[in-house]
Q: What sequence folds into this?
């Protein structure tokens, strides 16, 4: 497998594939961050998470089309507005879903899985009816095109660097909100002991709603980032949902650090293997490795030591 | 207590007879062969649904990977049929005669080793049971012995379904890829394609289905079934009472896998092909919804659920393709939110009491020993 390449080539391959993997890593982290909050913190299995992401992607696409037709002079900056709009749209939908569906099911986690799967089917069909079955692609502004030449054989695309920077920023913001702010303390209190949290005066229903909304909103931002590396169709979200759940479970459900570490290892393994075998075998080998490790270590990479 | 020692109580007996009447008499008499073949296809999912009643309804283990076992059973059967259809005379025009056509298209010149034993029907029948059974045993042992359950188990089985689908699609030369194994013709020289063969296969399938129903009913009534329910409700208490919780879970999961595999094998026979689109995540979740609609606690309900959801699917997607996904999605949400026990729950809550009251008023002098027994059972059946 490695025999045909010289050491220098191999180094370049690993760097380039590693970089391609970093973009995948960014989307995984953004998707998984939202899911880690919803699944890890709230215990809700949100199978419609991919559809929340795709909503963000469609919002981004609509914003870019609007800017193209009405404000071409500001087109280079559309992405920042699109990101905020995607966050608001997905977050609002998430809060609505929490209010209408999820809050009835907190005591039956396995049933949230079925109900949100139903929701994802409805959302997919809605996207198909509204936006059409064809995949749509977003036109990138001029400054994001092209690539940076690091050495002769290593080039990194600018949009990839941008997406990664974005991911780092969002991760920092989310961990600050969850671990440093007053509201984050309330969220963690509700997760640890709902009844006691309510008894000390936290409005648990409100906290639940905003937590779910935040998770979905982050998925929306993930959708914005997703438009840069792939085209958006009604079922694009479904392709990522299993991977994302594996990322969260592999990392250890309640740990943000674990989520990041597992997203990194999974995306890098897959991306590196992709160069040496076919894409499908790379995926199979990666998933098999993850499932195998989970069988040996069910609590994931970073387990919180809590008494159950 | 007298009642529970019987194999069927009265309402279950009614359910059994009603199902038998519909499947053996009414449907074959009222439908043409094409529609009957469709029913045969739907019933293959009923096998999976019965398995899920045992494993999910009773054991509380939600598996989102039943498509894997359905697929393994189906592919075992399809491999045998495909080998028979690819005899040297049938495949003279290929560059390597005597191997399945998709291998020839993928420049494979000799039959792979793992295909060789599928020349034998005995081996195939054994493989249909043993391969999925062993696979479930491995997954189940690895997970349940480490006390992994609930949502984690569901996600991991889903990942297994994803892996198997990608593998089948990717290894085109060995599995037929995304198109699956098509053009299956004969079973030991007996043509499975003409109408009369379809009818015989239908009745054979119904026969197997009733076999599975009886096995499931037997498991439900023995102490094993009680322990499954107890485990679902209070796992720790069962463990502290000295039972090996993991072994019971593994057993339920393996039984569900074997039922699903039988369904898959019948699918390959009845429908005449097998493809990865019946293995992956989406079909696996649809199989769960058949059980949920029928009622996760009811063996007969599962069969009705599989039939009705599929009839609705065919009907709606024939006339309003747009509406089908909305309908299916709404069905998921409605079943979970409003009817957690599905059709059989509605039956047990609204219809059964009326029948009981009607019958009780007739023999009011002798008194009714039946009233409320399904509730006392802890498990409303039908």
A:
């Amino acid at each position: 497998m490695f025999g045909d390449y010289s050491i220098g080539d191999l180094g370049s391959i690993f760097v380039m594939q590693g970089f391609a993997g970093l973009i995948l890593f960014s989307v995984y982290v953004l998707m998984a961050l939202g899911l880690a909050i919803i699944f890890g913190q709230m215990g809700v299995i949100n199978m419609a998470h991919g559809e929340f992401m795709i909503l963000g992607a469609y919002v981004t696409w609509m914003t870019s089309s609007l800017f193209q037709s009405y404000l071409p002079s500001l087109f280079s900056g559309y992405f920042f507005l699109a990101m905020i709009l995607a966050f608001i749209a997905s977050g609002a939908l998430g809060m609505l879903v929490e209010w209408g569906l999820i809050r009835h099911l907190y005591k039956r986690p396995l049933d949230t899985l079925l109900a949100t799967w139903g929701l994802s089917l409805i959302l997919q069909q809605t996207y198909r009816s509204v936006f059409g079955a064809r995949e749509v692609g977003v036109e990138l502004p001029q400054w994001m095109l092209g690539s940076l030449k690091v050495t002769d054989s290593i080039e990194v695309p600018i949009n990839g660097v941008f997406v990664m920077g974005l991911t780092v920023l969002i991760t920092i913001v989310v961990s600050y909100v969850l671990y440093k702010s007053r509201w984050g303390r309330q969220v963690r209190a509700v997760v640890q002991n709902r009844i006691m949290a309510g008894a000390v005066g936290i409005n648990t229903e409100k906290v639940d709603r905003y937590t779910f909304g935040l998770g979905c909103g982050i998925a929306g931002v993930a959708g914005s980032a997703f438009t840069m590396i792939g085209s958006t169709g009604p079922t694009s979200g479904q392709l990522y949902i299993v991977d994302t759940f594996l990322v969260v479970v592999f990392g250890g459900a309640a740990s943000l650090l674990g989520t990041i570490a597992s997203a990194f290892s999974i995306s890098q393994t897959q991306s590196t293997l992709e160069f040496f075998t076919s894409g499908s075998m790379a995926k199979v080998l990666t998933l098999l490795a993850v499932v195998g490790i989970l069988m040996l270590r069910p609590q994931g990479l970073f387990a919180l030591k809590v008494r159950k | 207590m007298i009642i529970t020692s019987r194999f069927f109580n009265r309402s279950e007996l009614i359910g059994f007879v009603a199902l038998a009447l519909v499947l053996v008499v009414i449907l074959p008499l009222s439908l043409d062969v094409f529609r009957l073949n469709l029913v045969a296809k739907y019933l293959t999912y009923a096998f999976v649904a019965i398995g899920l009643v045992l494993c999910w309804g009773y054991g509380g283990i939600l598996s989102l990977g039943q498509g894997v076992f359905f697929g393994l059973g189906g592919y075992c059967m399809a491999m045998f049929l495909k080998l028979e259809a690819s005899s040297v005379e049938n495949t003279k025009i290929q560059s390597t005669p005597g191997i399945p056509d998709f291998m020839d298209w993928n420049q494979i010149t000799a039959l792979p080793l793992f295909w060789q034993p599928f020349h034998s029907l005995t081996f195939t029948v054994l493989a249909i049971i043993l391969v999925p059974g062993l696979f479930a045993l491995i997954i189940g042992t690895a997970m349940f012995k480490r006390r992994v359950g609930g949502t984690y188990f569901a996600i991991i089985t889903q990942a297994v379904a994803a892996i198997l689908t990608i593998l089948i699609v990717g290894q085109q030369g060995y599995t037929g890829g995304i198109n699956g194994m098509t053009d299956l013709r004969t079973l030991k020289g007996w043509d499975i394609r003409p109408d009369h063969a379809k009818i015989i296969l239908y009745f054979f399938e119904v026969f197997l289905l009733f076999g599975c129903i009886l096995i499931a009913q037997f498991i439900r009534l023995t102490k094993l079934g009680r322990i499954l329910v107890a485990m679902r409700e209070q796992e720790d208490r069962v463990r502290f009472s000295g039972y090996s919780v993991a072994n019971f879970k593994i057993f339920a999961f393996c039984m569900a896998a074997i039922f699903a595999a039988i369904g898959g094998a019948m699918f390959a026979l009845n429908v005449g092909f097998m493809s990865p689109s019946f293995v992956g995540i989406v079909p696996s979740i649809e199989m769960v919804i058949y059980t949920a609609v029928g009622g996760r606690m009811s063996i007969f309900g599962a069969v009705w659920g599989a039939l009705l959801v599929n009839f609705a699917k065919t009907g709606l997607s024939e006339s309003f393709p747009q509406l089908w996904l909305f309908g299916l999605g709404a069905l998921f949400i409605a079943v979970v939110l409003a009817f957690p026990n599905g059709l059989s729950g509605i039956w047990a809550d609204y219809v059964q009491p009326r029948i009981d009251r009607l019958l009780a008023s007739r023999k009011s002098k002798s008194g009714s020993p039946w009233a409320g027994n399904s509730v006392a059972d802890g498990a409303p059946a039908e």
Summary: Chain B has one domain: 10-376.
